[in-house]
## 1
Amino acid sequence: MSNNWAEEYAETVETRSERRAHRRKQSAQERAKNKALAERDYLYRDWKKWHDKQLKEFLNGDYADAAQELHSFLAEADLDSGDQLIELVQQGPWLEADADTKYAVLRMIDYAITYLRESNGLEPFDDPLGSELNVFLTIRKLLTGW
């Protein structure tokens, strides 16, 4: 151990140029992080616009009446509406629809179920174990066969 305490202390202190370099490096890291976050936000907004456009097209497209009925039902549904939802899907034109329409139906139902579960303090997803089927999986099997 050195007898000169000032020399020992000086060895532990950053020089002015070292402090500036550290700040520049930190600023570059923060800039890169902020740029990545801004890009993510931009992509999310574009994705959201695209999905909103698809939903509008679905609600006003070839299956407008049935789509509006499904949309209204989902807006009023509660946690005990599962059997009624399955019945509504079975009675609708969805079983013979094209793949894009079936996807739109499944996506709308998925969003509604997730929102309903979360607004009631439940986990957004609760897939059953084994061969059991919940409401969403039952509807998916009806529409897609798997």
Note: The CA atoms of residues 126 and 134 lie 9 Å apart.
## 2
Amino acid sequence: MMTIKALYELLDVSASRFPDNIAVEEAETGSMSYAELAGLSDRLRDRFRETGVGLGDRVGICVRKSGDAIASIFGIMKAGAAYVPTDPTAPASRNAYIFHNCAVKVVIVESRLADRLSEEFKQKYRHPAIKEAAVLALPDDDGVPIKAFTSTREGSKLSMIERKKFCSENLPLYMVPDLFCSLESLPKTSTDKVDYQKLKTM
């Protein structure tokens, strides 16, 4: 009887059977063995999960064709997510639009492109009263409600109507929140990133 395996499972099988065989070869940076590729994809999977990426989420990729890009794709699949690739040579505004429209949860981007892409995201999501924001899908017995967590800048006030209007204008329809939670500040991890695991308990 034929056994069907996911693509990332085939990588792990190859890493187990042929750990030292070359999996990826690049003219500029050399080669990567199956064991190295599987190990890197595992570390990326763990990092994705730490940032709250889970089953069905989307992760953006803005990286040139390389061993790192391949490891990223496998890491995303191992986390149960889908990858959204973009052309790193395209304008940052176009890639930001694609990532925004696809509601990606995390973006993998080359360091040389990060500042420009980050600025495009800030322009798209910026609100003068909002300091920080995070959106989570929180499955329960009644479905999958979307909850938005926001903190406002000192001295600023933002009504519930204004929050809903901002989200409806800047998020895809299926990501517009059903619930809103206002916090003094969003919880952070040890690396000063938003702690999505803590948000899930709020």
Note: Residues 34-50 form the longest helix (17 residues).
